[in-house]
Design goal:
Length: 211
């Protein structure tokens, strides 16, 4: 029999969604292997075009690679700052845009753009739906992590081709995200960028129109 999701669960789900944060400040306490395995297994439940499951998770276990990747992100962050107006740059330089050195788990997520799984159903007309599927797997992992009290930070201030080469993955794999995972230093229900005056969340009505 399929489960019934009552009002208490619905309330808790709303709380989970409100408290899911992009986290950049982590405790470095290691995560158990079983926790990581459980989260990755949950991500596997995500919907995907043609059930192609094109997400490829690469756990970065080498300290040297982690440091190289963190140095790369720092360099890209500095480079992006140079293109900003003086005002924005001042606010930007106060932002922390990744926790790659502290987070106990660092995971690169790729999209396999050539997977034959699912017989290419749907992806023939909209190949980008493979990448959309990978994003859904990440979001599934994000929520499952938060439900366990863990924080996830999505790092995109990187050059995807460079990261793919550093990680020595198939040329058919496209980088979608670098994910930092671990205990958040301080859970919060307001996005960090909003707290720091960079960009607030908009009312939902401002993103909805009718025809
Ligand atoms: C595709 C994507 C890329 C992102 N890249 C970064 C990033 O490089 N660094 C960072 O600190 N946050 C990054 N974020 C997090 C956003 O800043 C964050 O989701 C947004 O400010 C809303 O905050 P919240 O996720 O806590 O609700 C990214 C989020 C998404 C969905």
């Amino acid at each position: 029999m399929s489960p019934q999701f009552g009002p208490d669960f619905q309330h808790e789900l709303a709380e989970l969604l409100a408290w899911r944060r992009d986290v950049r400040h982590f405790r470095s306490d290691p995560l158990g292997e079983e926790v990581v395995a459980e989260l990755l297994a949950t991500a596997q439940l995500a919907p995907s075009v043609g059930n192609s499951q094109p997400w490829r998770f690469v756990r970065v276990r080498s300290d040297k690679l982690r440091e190289t990747l963190a140095d790369h992100a720092d360099a890209e962050i500095a480079r992006a700052g140079k293109a900003m107006t003086e005002d924005r740059r001042r606010a930007y330089s106060a932002l922390k845009l990744h926790g790659m050195r502290e987070a106990p788990e660092l995971i690169a997520v790729f999209c396999d753009d050539t997977t034959p799984i699912g017989g290419r159903l749907g992806a023939a007309t909209m190949p980008e739906t493979r990448a959309f599927s990978v994003v859904l797997a990440i979001h599934t992992l994000w929520l499952a992590a938060r439900a366990k009290g863990l924080g996830l930070g999505w790092v995109s201030v990187i050059e995807p081709g460079h990261v793919a080469r550093l990680l020595d993955v198939s040329q058919d794999w496209r980088l979608i995200a670098l994910l930092c995972l671990g205990q958040p230093l301080e859970p919060d229900d307001v996005p960090e960028l909003e707290r720091r005056g960079w960009q607030a969340r908009l009312d939902w009505q401002s993103n909805v129109s009718e025809r």
